[in-house]
Design goal:
heterodimer; A: 305 residues; alpha/beta; Rossmann fold; Alpha-Beta Plaits; 2 domains; 6-stranded mixed sheet; 4-stranded antiparallel sheet; 38% helix; elongated; B: 263 residues; mainly alpha
Chain lengths: 305, 263
């Protein structure tokens, strides 16, 4: 669906995107994470044929960027960072205008469909300028979908939205995934990326990491299991540390934290060892690193060179 | 062509909601049509144009009057000063519309979603330019038609009316007018690409009327007079100027330039 090969963009002396190589599969929700100024919007602009790359190649839906730009624009949808609505025009007129530019066949039908889907039908005649941020964002999403694009680029879709509106937008993105659309999602919201994305790219001018959220966790952090004991005695820690498959074991805040490669295989052995030593095991769970931990670690390593 | 029309309709739907734009489009023609008619009424009512004489106008102007009487020539001289101001309409109205339309899109950040559609930048520029130029030119033409009918009713000298609607002024209004509108839109596009306030864009773009004002005062002072040859040269010069301005404006109106360099 989307494929880039050493995609690079320079603005004068400033390197905005450095040799980005990635492949996004059909039907995938692909998260593109990075700090402000990382080049995320520039990447989206290149992939939607809004600006041309300095070097490298990219293709969207089999159309080559720089050669088939009109085709690309016809087939992809984009939600820009700012909703960019005509405030003086009604919601309906806003959508009709874009539907005509996208050469949509059943304009009235499509406009009604998406206004209803996003809960804006009753307010279709009101000027977009009177809408709340959440409603504006919904209208902008409707605009991006009018021509039924198979690939959708969403640039910060929930930024500046209240939790309820953000939740609604996330639910809608999830429903788009169910429809089989490919979604390229730029976001600062790591929890959102964790929940929605099949794969995640961490990007800061260049690609720092690319994998599923689970595999990113595995790559960057060893799997850690937390054992809640009624009392953590030093001998329990030493005992566990002595097992051959254990990488590290330590006591933290009254819990025993154990790092190991294969908890599914080795947890029963640990539990058995602890129980035999007289420990009372109350609860066992895996310490799940947040995507924020992964992101911050990658960005920190990048800054440290 | 269909998309150009779509863009024009959207521009008009949006820009005419702005009271200042509406005021400029409606009020300027009213004033500029009324002024020469009032002057005709004052200087020539009841068939009395003899109150004016050759001493009331620059000496060289009488050469343009042909067989008109001194009084008729003087009346024509006075009214023709304001006829020149008719040219203000195809300059000022498109500048106002284009400034609000382009800078407005910049400030509300509506251009990027439009540029992401399959519309070509040429279609977008043409849509915006025509949406700005057509009202200016239409109002100028309409104003001139109203003036011509009014002059028929008010002016008592058929010779003066004939001169005010002769090929010189027809060419000025119907040929030079649209060329001026193209120039003003191109200047507005160029200036709008660098500023973020529609009023600033409009004020700077209004510099485009300076040559016209120079011509107006130059004629009053008697440095030169508008005649067929001058209008013809003006048209030729404007074709060349418009070509250059349009090429420059088109260069500025490219997707990448708009998204990355417009401040």
């Amino acid at each position: 669906m989307i494929e880039t090969q050493n995609l690079t963009k320079r603005f004068g002396d400033i390197l905005a995107v450095d040799r980005l190589t990635l492949k996004v599969e059909a039907g995938e929700v692909f998260g593109f994470l990075g700090p402000n100024g990382a080049g995320k919007t520039t990447t989206i602009r290149m992939l939607t044929a809004l600006i041309s790359p300095t070097s490298g190649d990219a293709a969207v839906l089999g159309c080559e960027i720089g050669r088939e730009d009109g085709q690309i624009r016809r087939q992809v949808g984009i939600l820009t960072e700012s909703p960019g609505l005509y405030d003086g025009l009604s919601a309906e007129r806003n959508l009709e205008f874009f539907a005509r530019l996208y050469e949509v066949e059943d304009i009235a039908e499509q406009v009604e469909r998406y206004l209803r889907m996003l809960g804006l039908w009753d307010r279709r005649a009101e000027a977009a300028g009177t809408f709340s941020k959440g409603m504006r964002q919904k209208l902008a999403i409707a605009r991006a979908l009018l021509h039924e694009p198979q690939v959708l680029f969403l640039d910060e879709p929930t930024s500046a939205l209240d939790p309820e509106a953000a939740h609604m937008v996330r639910e809608f993105i999830a429903s788009l995934k169910q429809e089989g659309r490919t979604i390229f999602l730029c976001t600062h919201n790591l929890d959102e990326a964790d929940r929605l994305c099949d794969r995640i790219a961490v990007f800061n001018t260049r690609l720092l990491a690319l994998d599923t959220p689970t595999d990113l966790r595995r790559q960057l952090y060893q799997r850690t299991v937390v054992f809640h004991l009624s009392q953590v005695e030093p001998r329990f820690v030493e005992l566990v540390r002595g097992l051959p498959f254990i990488r590290t074991a330590m006591e933290t805040e009254g819990k025993l934290l154990v790092a190991l490669d294969d908890p599914e295989r080795d947890n029963p052995t640990i539990v058995r060892t602890l129980v035999e030593a007289g420990a009372e095991v109350q609860f066992v769970g895996e310490l799940r690193r947040s995507l924020e931990d992964i992101y911050l670690k990658l960005i920190k390593e990048e800054h440290q060179g | 062509m269909d998309k150009i029309w779509v863009i024009m309709r959207k521009e008009w739907a949006e820009v005419f909601k702005n009271r200042f734009v509406l005021f400029t489009v409606a009020f300027l023609p009213l004033i500029l049509v009324a002024l020469p008619l009032i002057l005709l009424q004052i200087t020539g009512s009841s068939g009395d144009v003899s109150g004016l004489s050759a001493t009331d106008m620059p000496a060289r102007f009488s050469e343009l009057c042909g067989e008109m009487s001194e009084g008729e020539c003087a009346q024509y001289f006075l009214v023709s000063q304001f006829m020149l101001l008719f040219m203000l309409m195809p300059l000022a109205i498109p500048v106002t519309i284009a400034s609000y339309s382009i800078v407005g899109e910049k400030t509300t950040r509506t251009l990027e979603p439009v540029l992401a559609t399959p519309v070509t930048t040429l279609e977008l520029l043409a849509g915006k330019a025509l949406a700005a130029a057509i009202p200016g030119v239409s109002v100028t033409w309409l104003g001139f038609v109203v003036f011509a009918f009014g002059a028929q009713l008010i002016a008592t000298s058929p010779a003066v009316v004939a001169r005010l609607t002769d090929p010189l002024w027809l060419m000025a209004i119907f040929v030079v007018g649209p060329l001026l509108a193209i120039a003003s839109v191109s200047v507005a596009v160029m200036i709008s690409s660098r500023v973020n306030d529609p009023r600033v864009a409009e004020q700077l773009s209004m510099l485009v009327i300076l040559p016209l004002l120079a011509a107006f005062f130059g004629q009053i002072a008697g440095f030169f007079f508008i005649n067929e040859r001058l209008i013809l040269w003006m048209a030729v010069a404007l074709v060349l100027i418009d070509t250059g301005l349009l090429a420059f404006a088109t260069q500025l109106f490219q997707r990448e330039t708009i998204l990355t360099r417009w401040k």
